[in-house]
Write a structure and sequence with these properties.
With 160 residues, the chain is of the alpha+beta class. It contains four helices and eight strands. Helix content is 31%, strand content 31%. A five-stranded antiparallel beta sheet has the order 4-3-5-2-6, sandwiched between helices. A three-stranded antiparallel beta sheet has the order 1-7-8, covered by helices on one side. β7 and β8 form a beta hairpin.
């Protein structure tokens, strides 16, 4: 068995969600969930079919983001994995809607960070065994960092 790290390449200022689902219907259902959550959202979506023709199914509202999602899905190459690249929205805006889609089994990550997907290959197929999302901690927040975190959440409008 071979294990490799696949770096997700995405446009600057975009976010990525990587997950696993179980049916080709996922493509249309995720599209509907995302556009209903954030009107005017710009995104691309790709899904790795795991049987039959084993195609990468894709859709989206912006070609560059759709192409990036397809490229990431191709590099991951694991059955039933989906990749969403968001342009003008954040994962927090769509994550609950994505998780509520009946075909979705799990979400591996939702991030703006650099992300690497750990993929295992056994000769017959590939599977995601985890992700490396961003960097490792450099310390523990103190009272000044806690105040900065709370202020940032209020500045972004997530808290009052």
């Amino acid at each position: 068995m071979e294990i490799k790290a696949v770096e997700i390449m995405k446009p600057a200022d975009s976010n990525v969600i990587v997950g696993q689902a179980h049916f080709i219907k996922t493509v249309e259902d995720l599209y509907e969930a995302i556009v209903q959550a954030v009107p005017g959202v710009k995104f691309g979506l790709a899904f790795c079919e795991a049987s039959g023709p084993c195609l990468i199914r894709h859709t989206g509202t912006e070609r560059e983001l759709e192409d990036a999602a397809v490229a990431a899905a191709r590099e991951i190459g694991a059955g039933h994995v989906f990749v969403v690249i968001l342009g003008n929205a954040f994962p927090i805006n769509v994550l609950n809607q994505i998780k509520s889609v009946s075909e979705v089994c799990t979400v591996f990550c939702a991030t703006a960070n650099a992300v690497r997907v750990l993929v295992a290959a056994d000769g017959d197929g590939r599977g995601v065994i985890g992700v490396i999302d961003g960097a490792s901690p450099r310390g523990v927040e103190g009272s000044a960092e806690q105040a900065e975190r709370r202020a940032m959440l209020r500045r972004f409008g997530y808290k009052q």
